[in-house]
Amino acid sequence: MQRWLILADDLTGANDCAVAFARHGHAAAVVWGNGAAEPGDSVVAVDADSRRLPPDAAAARHRALLEAWRSPGAALFKKIDSTLRGQPAAELAETLAVLREAGQPALAIVAPAFPATGRTTEGGHVRLNGDPLEATPLWARDHTYPTAELSAVLAAAGLDAGHLPLEALRAGDAPPAAALRGALAAGTAAMVCDAATAEDLAAIARATLPLWRRVVWVGTGGLAAALAAAAPGGRAEPPPLPSLPASGGLLLVVGSVAEASRAAAERLLRAGGVHFFPIAPALLRAGPGAEWHAAAEAIAGVLARGEDALVTIGTEPAADLRQGAALTEALAMLLRPAGRRMGGLFATGGETARAVLAGLGIGSIRLLDEVEPGVPLGLTRGRAGVPVVTKAGAFGNMDTIGRARDRMRALLQGRDPE
Questions:
Q1: pLDDT tens digits, residue range 151-170?
Q2: What is the tens place of the pLDDT at every residue in 215-265?
Q3: How far is CA 95 from CA 76, 189, 196, in A?
Q4: Helix, strand, or coil (residue 20)
Q5: 3-230 homologous superfamily
Q6: pTM summary value
Q7: What is the dihedral of CA 99, 1, 241, 82, to 10 degrees?
Q8: What order of strands is seen across the sheet that includes strand 119-122?
Q9: Do strands 375-380 and 387-391 pair parallel, antiparallel, or not at all (unpaired)?
Q10: Between 3.40.980.20, 3.40.440.10, 1.10.540.10, 3.40.50.720, what CATH number should domain 250-413 receive?
């Protein structure tokens, strides 16, 4: 079975990609911090936790991780954000530099489309639900580059790029193969690939898999799913889920300000059956005190009774997104007593999930299945099988948290989750 190394800029992205391989029969794990892979893992996704770093620091972290984890016998997938948050160009440039220095020059296959979540690439430009990415609230709230035109983004990092348009991709196997051969012969750094459907991504996978020793795939869970389906050695159906003993209640944490996540939290509250704990940013900034400890004990108490707790970071009209990492770390500290009581964790926002789990000494997840596209389910390692569902902040819809809660409850109770 082909081995894979996935290098991701946050935990939710690492999970999105690894679970695609798990669903096709590969033993897939995500690791971070001091976490370690196990001998049977054929797919290892490493979370660099670099989303909010400046370009030089993000690139340096990718270099260090690639040098530590790279194996000549493993195919390489560079996970980037589907809406170009973070520093994907600088990270890719450093990744290609490491490979060149090791005598393995590679062509980057850049295909960030994830049609199942509304992300497409057309004319070399990222679109969200049909609109130019630059015209969306996501871009207005958080973006790194002046444009979502991929060749320009790559050029800013010193990477020249060819372009494989939809019409060539859909014309059969010969045009994509010819374009790839030409780019490899010319020493081009990257090939930007359009994709508007899952079949477009499948065509990219079929055209590029035979070249796995000479390419680096750059994309999201959409491309990972296409590669996992086309790669040899897997199976069509996900493995059966284990039966777990029921323990504490579910800890449901919304650390994202994205509209999709907030709407899903509101829908869950209206449905009832959960205890709600909105945590004010001012409380997190102030640090441990009487109010802090009261909130921490109240959340832990709910979970100890086997009931579910929904925790959100309150919104502030003039919030500075640069404070997000500090608030997330503070929230993870506040939730540490709750984490020792929880029977399962749902977390939206990669920084949130990583911080909560790392605070409990957990550094690895074994991926099992998806609740829905882009919302993976796994089990922690280093603690007896605690189910974990993660979701990128802008993925999903108003029912996503409820579905994740139902799926984890079914797993803990030994029921058919469907």
A1: 999 999 999 999 999 999 99
A2: 999 999 999 999 999 987 655 555 566 666 667 899 999 876 666 677 888
A3: 10, 11, 27
A4: helix
A5: Putative sugar-binding, N-terminal domain (3.40.50.10840)
A6: 0.87
A7: 30
A8: 119-122, 125-128, 131-132
A9: antiparallel
A10: 3.40.980.20
